[in-house]
Structures are given as C-alpha cells and as structure tokens.
Prior knowledge:
Layout: E1 2-3, H1 4-16, H2 38-45, H3 56-63, E2 67-69, H4 87-131, E3 159-161, E4 177-178, H5 184-192, E5 200-204, H6 213-219, H7 229-247, E6 252-256, H8 261-272
Parallel strand pairs: 1-4, 5-6
Antiparallel strand pairs: 2-3
Amino acid sequence: xxxxNQIVRDKxxxxxALPIKPPxxxxxxxxxxxxxxxxxxQEVKDGKPFPAWKFLPWIMEFLGVPxxxxxxxxxxxxxxxxxxxxDDQKKAYxxxxxxxxxxxxxxxxxxxxxEAAKADRQKRRQDLLDxxxxxxxxxxxxxxxxxxxxxxxxxxxxxxxxxxESGNIPKIGKIVMYxxxxxxxxxxxxxxxxxxxxxxIYLNDMSEEEPGKAIRERMNGVGDFVFDWEEESAKAQKVxxxxxxxxxxxxxxxxxxxxxxxxxxIKLQTKIDPFFMQADNEEIKFDWSALPMAEDxxxxxx
Length: 302
C-alpha cells in the first residue's frame, strides 16, 4: 500500500527536522541523501506551489527502487547557413565561433588541470596513509578541501529510476497507490518512473437514499476542518473526468464504499476480478486476520 501524501509528509518532516540539510544527491563520496535542493525546500517553507509529481523520487525510495541521476541533456545547435549571410554577417559569425572555440579550449584545459591536481593530491595523501595511518594530513597540507568533497545539491526532478542492464526503465507493479495520480500530467510522470496502473479505483458513496451520508459520518471529527461532501465530491468528479479522458473509462473502477471494511473489500475484489469468491461453498471464507489494518480498524464490525 502506497499512501502518496503520507510518504511525502513523513519525508518532508524528516528533512525539515535536520539541523543542516545535506545535498540532494546519490554520491558515495560524501554525506548526501534523497531529498530536495535547498532552493526547493525554501519554496515549500514559503508556502509556494510545488508540483506533486516532483515527489515521485521519494516514492521510489520508499519502494526500494534504485535511483540514478539524470544524464545531462545534449543540446544540438541548429546548422547555420553561411552561404545566405552577407560579408559582414559572415565575419561576425566567424569571429563569434572563434571566440566560442577558444573559451571551450580554456575550459577543457582548466578542467583537466583541476582533475590532475586533485588526482595528484589524492595519490600523495594515500601514499602517506599507507606509510602511516595516523599521519597528520593537515600538517602535510594534504587534508581534504571543500572543493574536493563538494557534492552538488540537485533539484528533486534530477533523480529518476535507474535503468536495467538493457537500458530500460523497470516496470513497477504489485502496489496500490492512493491520493495520486490526479491529473493527466501525473499519469504521464508516473509512466516516466515505470509506474503504469492497471486500474484507477474510485471509492464513492453510492447510496440511493442519502448519497454522501457514510462518508460524512466517517469524516466527522477527522482533522480540524469541516468536511463539505458536495465540494469534495465535485473536486473528485473533476479529477475522475480528467483521468477517464486520458486512460479510458474501462480502466476506471467505481466502488460503493458503504458498509464495513469487509463489505467494501469484497465489492472491490469483485469489481477488479469478477471471478472473486464466485463459489456456492459456504465453507470458503476469507482470512481477515491476514489483512493488515490500522489500529482503529482492527475491529471493523465493532
């Protein structure tokens, strides 16, 4: 069972409780964790809107799915037709191209020198440690610098599902997720992370006498807000309409949530699998003790 909203709340509480947030990264070279960048965290603290789908890496971590850092995008420059340029335009273009080439050459040289210097320091440091594990690296001027152990604090959406040996994203199944997805974009993003839903289940109070009565009673006293059935039902219908339009009505299952946990479970199983419990043998019974329940659900018929 994957409670999207609860996982996000728990993870966010964990991150906010840290005295210093480590970089959002998967590096093994220093302290980091799967979280979000400092800028993104500040946006959340400031109450700014934050796309729910960006928390999908947290869901993957909860499920134990290996993650990786997205490879940098390769930008392809459009071909420039020099033949159509005037003489002045050609000169300006060639000058600009020469400048770019020189800058790239300098950048590559500086990067190579920095990497060589870092490798040299690491080698000299290791040589000293091999001779004497208790050597004072600071006295030798070979202590690790912040530059050497700097780990990038990545945006949350730079973490994605690690591909398998064939270069494919593994398909994630055998889960029930609730609270998400709610829009066409959410569904598309789930697919990017390997989550493809067989069915979308919509629990609704389908009582003919007084629709919404059962849900009102269940929501009475939950939280510090007044539950408005009409408003919440309208929101749910809007979300449902978007999902039906995107994945088709046949993949949306509406289930009446009236009754006990047992009643709703049987309705749900029957909707998903028409052959569920289609037997006349009264001795066939479901073992409800095997069904994990919250403490307040332990005695659904009480």
